[in-house]
Design goal:
By secondary structure, the protein is α/β, with parallel strands linked by helices. The protein is 31% helix and 21% strand.
Length: 206
């Protein structure tokens, strides 16, 4: 089965002082470069979900789509945006994988393992876990549920991913958090400095 991907870059990054976390520099290049490098080989097509002026992401050479739900409605809006983009542009693709754009160590086998778990457990969708924590923004979503998600977001003001996934059978795939948690995410300048150190110490972590 083919899987498309969406990079969720629609947040406001308040704890980073605003702006785009994905454009912060890590090891001499934009943070999003690290995520794109790991995500792109795992999917058949890759979309950037970002609000505001799309020109700031043009150099990545990927399609860009703003939230289809207004008002900075969170990562669930990005998932819906990705689903509807797939329906319009990759209609034969049944699955969408979502990636946060602030986690430079995302596993290179993320999509493969999520897809395998969804199949073996006959689940509707799947998400990653590590160190006892769910990471729902690193998820695998059936594009066929786009209409249901849109209705939930508009008619029920649904905003929390875990409230929506609770309605379906969710497979959880656990990833080892040693020597580094692959879902370590950057939410502050201190985290960015920590990621610099981790990157130099763990070259080739997948």
């Amino acid at each position: 089965m083919t899987v498309a991907g969406v990079l969720l870059a629609g947040g406001k990054a308040r704890r980073m002082g605003g702006g785009d976390k994905g454009l912060e520099q890590l090891a001499g290049r934009p943070l999003m470069d690290h995520i794109v490098e790991r995500a792109r080989p795992q999917v058949s097509a890759l979309l950037i979900n970002a609000n505001g002026d799309p020109k700031r992401f043009e150099h990545f050479g990927l399609p860009i789509a703003a939230d289809v739900i207004e008002g900075f409605a969170g990562p669930l809006a990005g998932v819906l945006t990705g689903m509807e983009w797939v329906l319009d542009n990759e209609p034969e693709t049944p699955w969408l994988a979502s990636f946060a754009t602030d986690a430079p160590f995302v596993p290179e086998d993320l999509v493969k393992r999520l897809l395998a778990a969804a199949g073996s457990e006959d689940a509707d969708m799947a998400c990653a876990t590590s160190a006892g924590r769910d990471h729902p923004v690193f998820g695998l979503w059936p594009v066929a549920l786009a209409g249901d998600l849109r209705r939930a977001m508009i008619e029920e003001d649904m905003r929390k991913i875990d409230l929506w996934t609770a309605r379906y059978k969710l497979a959880r795939v656990d990833f080892a958090a040693d020597p580094v948690d692959p879902f370590f995410n950057i939410n502050s300048p201190d985290h960015l400095a920590e990621a610099e150190n981790l990157l130099s110490e763990t070259r080739g972590v997948a």
